[in-house]
Design goal:
With 331 residues, this protein is of the alpha/beta class. Strands 1, 2, 3, 4, 5, 6, 11, 12 and 13 form a nine-stranded mixed β-sheet that branches. A two-stranded antiparallel ribbon has the order 7-8. β1, α1 and β2 form a beta-alpha-beta unit. α7 runs parallel beside α9. It is globular and about 50 Å long.
């Protein structure tokens, strides 16, 4: 089984200097690629000079996470793609549990490792933690992270198990499945496109898996801060895309209406916090969703089954009103 570790980069010279050394050192059984989204810094020149064994693919423009990977992966033929953020440090022997899992379980299409915080390695990291799930209204959360509450890693998730979605910080996917599903939806640009991808893969009958024996450390926010209004815009809009595309009929309309109402409550919360730019971001997210709604509706799989995508009811109600901050506390 051949493996490609594929790092998408845009003006990430400082991040590459910090994180690429561990990836190259601990990925001897894989070919490392840098897919560059038309950087204007010295990222490409640095990698060419310092790591001549890293293969470089140049995209003509910054097409975001979704488009950038879609373009770059067309040039990569290995059996397994490991889509790795440029702000990730990896552990020794991190690839062996991955290959073993794929070889043992043929129905697994996507794997996520344990993702810990680079600055606080005893804690899970926001983007993925110990595997992702959704509530009934499409809000994402993880074992080890619900909204902004991060759990300390005490081994509570040291068991391989099926999950609903794998983090885009380190998404490991079979080449053939990636192209069977049609790759990422480029309309997303960035954020939650991995949830859409995994959801569509589930709808084809494949499994998404969490592999605890493989571990990485993610800085997070290296390209866009978690508190940036643009991130709010992308997360809110793309979550509406996910529901419209992937929830089976006729329930998706009801789920969508509930989600729109909850987004309104989120704006009320932003108002009390004085975060007016985030209110504007949510409003713009809804306008963008309405603008693209016809296109999104046409992407619905007409043969969608009643796959149960959610593992709990409202995560918003449980977290903010019932104060259930950890995964083990959820109903």
């Amino acid at each position: 089984m051949s493996i490609a570790v594929v790092i998408l980069n845009w003006n990430g010279l400082d991040l590459l200097k910090t994180f690429l050394p561990s990836v190259v050192k601990h990925s001897e059984e894989a070919q490392v690629y840098l897919v560059d989204n038309a950087s204007t810094d010295d990222s490409v020149a640095y990698v060419k000079t310092t790591y001549p064994n890293v293969k470089i693919i140049l995209n003509p423009s910054n097409a975001g996470y979704a488009g950038g990977y879609n373009q770059g992966l067309k040039h990569i033929e290995e059996d397994v793609y490991i889509l790795l953020n440029n702000d990730v440090s990896v552990c020794e022997n991190w690839l062996k549990p991955i290959t073993s899992t794929f070889e043992t379980h043929k129905d697994i299409a996507v794997i996520q490792p344990k993702i810990l915080d680079y600055n606080k390695p005893e804690y899970f990291e926001y983007a993925g933690a110990a595997g992702g799930f959704l509530d009934i209204c499409g809000y994402p959360y993880c074992r080890g992270r619900i909204f902004n509450t991060l759990e300390k890693d005490s081994g509570q998730y040291d068991k391989d198990s099926e999950i609903l979605w794998a983090s885009g910080a380190c998404l490991i996917i079979k080449n053939e499945v990636f192209w069977e599903i049609g790759g990422f939806d480029e309309l997303y640009f960035a954020h939650q496109e991995e949830i859409d991808l995994c959801w569509r893969i589930h709808n084809l009958g494949y499994k998404i898996w969490y592999c605890h024996q493989s571990c990485i450390y993610h800085l997070g926010g290296g390209t866009l801060s978690a508190f940036h209004p643009k991130k709010t815009f992308l997360n809110f809009r793309n979550s509406l895309f996910n529901i419209t595309k992937n929830v089976a009929s006729p329930w998706f309309v009801l789920v969508l209406v509930k989600r729109l109402l909850l987004d309104g409550l989120a704006c009320v919360r932003f108002l009390f916090l004085g975060q007016f730019k985030h209110i504007f971001a949510v409003l713009m997210a809804h306008l963008s969703f309405y603008k693209h709604s016809i296109k999104i509706l046409k992407q619905r799989n007409k043969s969608l089954n009643s796959f149960k995508y959610y593992t709990t009811w409202s995560i918003v109600f449980q977290y903010f009103l019932l104060q259930k901050k950890h995964y083990k506390d959820l109903n």
